[in-house]
Amino acid sequence: MIITSPKPLDEILDFLSPYTKVFIVGCDGCTQPPRGLREAKALTQLLELGGRLRGKEFETKTTTVAKQCDSHLIATMLRPQTEGIESILSLSCGLGVQTITEVLPDLVTFPAQNSIFAGMEAREKGTFEEWCSACGDCILALTGGICPVTRCAKGLLNGACGGTSNEKCELNPENDCAWCLIYKRLEELGRLDVLKEYRPPRPYRAIARPGRYRE
Amino acid sequence: MPNQETLGTGQTSAITLNEDYCSTCTICYSLCPFEAITREPETGKILLDIDKCQVCGLCYSTCPAKAIDTLYYDMDSLTDYLERAKQAYQPDNLVIMCKGSAPDFGGIEKMFDVPKFVPLSVPCVGRIPGEIFLKAMTMGFEKIYVLACDEDYCRFEEGSAVTGRKLMVFNLLLEQLGYGKEVISLKQNSLKVKVDRNKCISCGNCLFYCPYDAAKLEAPEAVSFDLELCRGCGLCVALCPAMALELENWEEERISALISQLSSEMEKPKILVFRCQWAVFPLLEEELAPNVRMIELPCASRIDALHLLEALGNGVDGVLIAACPEDDCRQEKRSKEAEHIVNLLKKRLSQLGLEDKLHFCFVTPRHPETFAEELRQFKEVIEAGCLKERKK
User: Fold this and answer.
1) Does domain B193-247 have CATH number 3.30.70.20?
2) Chain B: residue nearest A50 by CA?
3) What's the gap between Cα A28 and its chain centre?
């Protein structure tokens, strides 16, 4: 999932200041924590309250889209609802904001969120954790299903650094040392032999940006 | 009237035991679902521990010696209420319903097929003393309808079961007295979640939050609920990102309509209270200050951030949320979840400098002062805030 955090209301109110008729659009796709209809409505009400404090009455409209990063959905589902609208406030990750900008160039689209990372949801802990960096060269098969590229702060490929202490990372002791996790997992699987092989530095060509993909 | 004040604490107890009247028959002891009533082994003396008491009122309604008294819905206030209502509307029917399971009045009308009735809504029908049925008949009511929660879902565990047994006895008694057969009729009900499968995005949020494992998700279908397991707490409704869920009788629209109606009739500074129906028991003769209005919820977990915002948007100056303490919560500690929802919203409101307009508190009906005090303090904060705003 793409993890996002809400932008401060003042920042949003600032960039919306030239506009009155604002369309607030949630995303039911992979944006987490949920940025669907409920969150869009809550944000609408918060902006109306904040607007009033600045002496401004917004004319708002609120909806949600199954996934904002789908150009066809934006063209077919969102476009027909945009009549009389001056500006769109998107609750999606950066992809939704850009997709709407691309498909509906006559409107100004703003982000309501900061996109932070691709994360898994640890429900019981109530946290989202960055476990994948979309590096384009997946080595999970060799590391017991645990990604050192993302979960090791240094992105090391050949085992723990000297800074690991009590199986925690020296840069942030709240984080497990990814290489300790990998070692334990491979031990469980009886595959410690995999670690004997030296892995050369990663080919950064694989993540040349911007990426494009076709299937 | 026994002294309602417990020694030492200075707080009023909602239930009191008068030892002078107690015959130590142990009926209350054997009925209390919360082990708040104990019996001294040597002397047989009955003791009440108010801190364990959940104020269900079962002991009050069943004590043959009238040794137990309650602040809420005692014989006197019930009789007063019925007399006033009977005179005002002249209906033939009385409907006594448990707050936990009753639909709105339209739903009651359909359920019992009674167009005109006096409604008496109480937290657990088990607390109604049987004598009130006799009183009602002498007042001229012809039929009494009782709506209890399904026995498995009774918030006070024994309330519905006790009601069933009590009604059997009083129906026989009334028949012998010549009032006819089956004068009191009983129905059991419990409110459930409703899902709009067209709106469901299959995100699985309700599966995670449902304390009773009632939500089922089988890909690629929309979510479905096992209504046998659902207890109608409303937590899934308040947290559904797609707003695909509704709780019977506490529908989004119904609460919204209530918010706008109440906020328009209040005086400034307007204070709207959302309270869990088990955390604060209103009195039948409850009179509210002209600037305070209340909205009852089935459980604090139905607290919806959108409704709190809606109240503020409607010009309400302060929103107070009253939930049961974690250990008392009848919905498996879901009041904690409500606190979390309110805190998150408070954090966002603080970006606008509006955080003081929201206050969450844990209260219990066992000491009515706790809620009164929270409300008093909150009013002070809001009034001071409004004064400051005006000066600007």
Assistant:
1) yes
2) B352
3) 13
